[in-house]
Every structure is written in structure tokens, then in C-alpha cells.
Design goal:
Layout (H helix, E strand, L loop, with lengths): L16 E9 L5 E12 L10 H16 L3 E8 L4 E3 L4 H8 L3 H19 L5 E5 L2 E3 L1 H8 L2 E5 L3 E3 L2 H4 L7 H9 L1 H10 L3 E2 H7 L4 E3 L2 E3 L2 E3 L24 H13 L1 E2 L2 H15 L3 H33 L3 H11 L9 H9 L6 H7 L6
Parallel strand pairs: 2-3, 3-5, 4-6, 5-7, 6-8, 7-10
Antiparallel strand pairs: 1-2, 8-9, 11-12, 11-13
Helix pairs in contact: 1-3, 2-12, 3-11, 6-7
């Protein structure tokens, strides 16, 4: 046999993410010798696994490493802990460095675009293990994956138009392919999060599993209606939040239990095993053919979106990210009504406008 060539661009010591190779299991649950699943784990739980510039670079390199590794069967993309898979870009970094710095943010968005593209071009199937919230850019990199398996306390959605950005890092390209144009329009604009049960019903997820254990037994998310339910107004509210006394009881039940992600790990392992029992080239061709539907939109829009997002750092993003980073805990959004009033009067975007609408400047 000829000596094998190394196709990796660089070797790297990871600091913002964790890269692990875990043995593949056969249908009997036994390790398959010499075969592994590569786990790429966002490691910033104190900031809900939001990705810093360094983490973005490391995800790119990790995806390439897993893609090139001949022993890797599948990639599992996830985050540390049980609160969040990822809540998008690191708003502290955005507010303190990139706000008002469009030329720098443009370079950052080149890295972000490369992260999404690297997921979409990985030679191995990519499974998003949704261990908690998948919001904003987290939703976007999650949808770039081929499969999503979630614990049912997770929430899904966008934040851009409420915090000074637009969900054009993937959501406007991908979300309608999963849930249809009307639901994608509502999610991307109004930014109301979906429960895992609702996201599963809409077709966003491959599988959901319970994560809350009460008295030693797994139970479904007690904060939402997990079965088909019709309320007094005749609305089907499967997956929507409980209300009133039911919601209060659900919160008490949540407090009394513990979070256990063992069923999530079992579900991810099952899918990895099923993928292992396929012809690898046929599997790769099938996945890449289906990815073309995402790439058709992503490749068409990513560069012009990068330009817009950079320039937006001089106006709405500058105000929105600083409000989120510097505002009081109970008020991290600008005064939208006052902003619209000022713009209707023809007020220019300047520091005076930002001070007037921002919560951190209010006495």
C-alpha cells in the first residue's frame, strides 16, 4: 500500500472548541475497530456557547480535519452543557470591537461565511446535536448541518431584527427549505422562538428526545403542549407555551427535576450507526446532492450579505449590540418606537440618536 498523504492545511491546538474522536458503535453497541465519529464541541458555556472570532476559525479547521480523516464516519457538532448549543456571535465581542468597525466586521464575516461553507462541504455527514438553545447564528450553523437531533427543552429561532442585524448568515437561505416561506418569514422577522416540539412538527428537526428527569423518569417538556391540543379559541397549539396555572405548574415541575442528556446521546449514536451501515461514496453523493438546495441560495447571497452586514455595523448593529451588551439585565433592547419616530423626522444616524434610544443611557 502506498504511503498516505496528509491533506490537512494546518495542525492546530484547539482552545475555543473541543475536538474528540469517539468510537463508532455497531448495531450490537460494540465499538467498530478503527472507525470513529468526530465530535466538534463549542466550548463557551459561560456565554451560552456564542462563538468568538477564534472559535469560528477553529470550527473551520475542525470541520476540515474531520472531513479529511479517513477513519471518521460522521461529524457531531454540539456545545458544552445543557443550556445552549449556540446563541450566535459573541455579542460582547461584537459590541466592544466590531460595532462601528465595518472594515473589521467584513473580515470577520469572511470567516463566518467560511464556517458555514465548510459545514456544507464536509465529506462526512454532519449531525447537529442540539443540547440546548439554538438561536440566531446558532440556528444558522445548525441548519447548515445535514441532521438535527434535539433535547426537547431546546428553543429555536432568530434574534437579528430585534438586536440590530438580519438573519442573513444562513436563515434567509435555509429556513424556508425546512418549514416553508410563511413560517420562515414569521420566524426571521418577529423573532419569537419555537419550542423543540414545534420545530419538530414544522420539519426543522430529525428527532427530539426528552431531557427532563423527575423522580427518576424522563418526562416531556412541561412548559409546552407536547400533544395536539385545541384551545378555547379553536387554535391548535401543539408545541406552543402553556399558559396561566398550567405554565406555573410546568415551571415547578422543571425546577424539581434534573437535566439528563443521555437519551440525546443515544439518539445521536443510533443515527451515526445507521450512517455507518451504508456505502460511503454513495452516502456522500446523496448528501451532497441534497445540500445543493442549500448551496443554491447560500452561494448566491453570502458575499452581498457580508457587505451589508459590515456596513450595518455603523448604524443599527452598533446600537443594537451595544444595548444588549451594556443595557440592564431587564432591558437590553433599544426603544424601537422612539427610533422610528426619530427616523421619520429625518434624524441622521449619529451618537445623539444612539444615546436617545439606548437603555444603557437611561437614568
Amino acid at each position: 500500500m502506498k504511503p498516505l498523504k496528509d491533506h490537512d492545511l494546518v495542525r492546530v491546538e484547539y482552545s475555543g472548541i473541543i475536538y474528540e474522536k469517539r468510537p463508532c458503535k455497531d448495531f450490537n453497541g460494540e465499538p467498530a475497530e478503527g472507525l470513529y465519529n468526530a465530535w466538534i464541541i463549542l466550548n463557551n458555556p459561560a456565554q451560552l456557547n456564542s462563538y468568538t472570532t477564534q472559535m469560528v476559525k477553529e470550527v473551520i479547521l475542525a470541520m476540515r480535519q474531520a472531513s479529511n480523516d479517513r477513519s471518521v464516519n460522521a461529524v457531531v457538532f454540539t456545545g458544552v452543557g445543557d443550556r445552549a448549543f449556540c446563541t450566535g456571535g459573541n455579542t460582547k465581542e461584537y459590541a466592544e470591537y466590531y460595532a462601528g468597525n465595518p472594515q473589521e466586521y467584513k473580515q470577520y464575516m469572511r470567516l463566518f461565511n467560511d464556517m458555514v461553507s465548510t459545514i456544507l462541504m464536509c465529506d462526512k455527514p454532519v449531525i447537529n446535536r442540539v443540547n440546548g438553545m439554538r438561536i440566531a447564528g446558532g440556528q444558522e450553523i445548525g441548519m447548515a448541518c445535514d441532521f438535527s437531533i434535539a433535547q426537547d427543552l431546546a428553543r429555536f429561532g432568530q434574534a437579528g431584527p430585534r438586536h440590530g442585524s438580519a438573519p442573513i448568515g444562513g436563515s434567509t437561505d435555509f429556513l424556508h427549505l425546512y418549514v416553508g416561506i410563511e413560517r420562515a418569514m414569521f420566524s426571521c422577522t418577529v423573532c419569537e422562538p419555537w419550542s423543540a416540539h414545534l420545530a419538530y412538527r414544522y420539519g426543522l428537526l430529525t428527532e427530539i428526545v426528552p431531557a427532563l428527569k423527575v423522580n427518576g423518569e424522563f418526562i416531556p417538556n412541561p412548559l409546552v403542549y407536547t400533544d395536539r391540543w385545541v384551545n378555547e379559541r379553536g387554535e391548535i397549539i401543539y408545541g406552543l407555551p402553556r399558559e396561566g396555572e398550567e405554565l406555573a405548574r410546568g415551571k415547578e415541575l422543571l425546577k424539581s427535576g434534573t437535566i439528563d442528556l443521555s437519551l440525546l446521546d443515544e439518539a445521536v449514536d443510533r443515527l451515526c450507526t445507521k450512517l455507518m451501515y451504508t456505502f460511503p461514496n454513495c452516502l456522500s453523493m446523496t448528501i451532497n446532492s441534497l445540500r445543493k438546495k442549500k448551496l443554491e441560495h447560500w452561494d448566491q447571497n453570502k458575499e452581498s450579505n457580508r457587505e451589508w452586514l459590515a456596513l450595518n455595523m455603523m448604524t443599527e448593529a452598533k446600537a443594537g449590540f451595544r444595548a444588549f451588551n451594556e443595557g440592564p439585565k431587564d432591558n437590553r433592547e433599544v426603544d424601537f418606537v422612539r427610533l422610528r419616530q426619530l427616523l421619520a423626522e429625518g434624524h441622521e444616524w449619529d451618537d445623539d440618536l444612539i444615546r436617545e434610544i439606548s437603555p444603557q443611557y437611561k437614568k
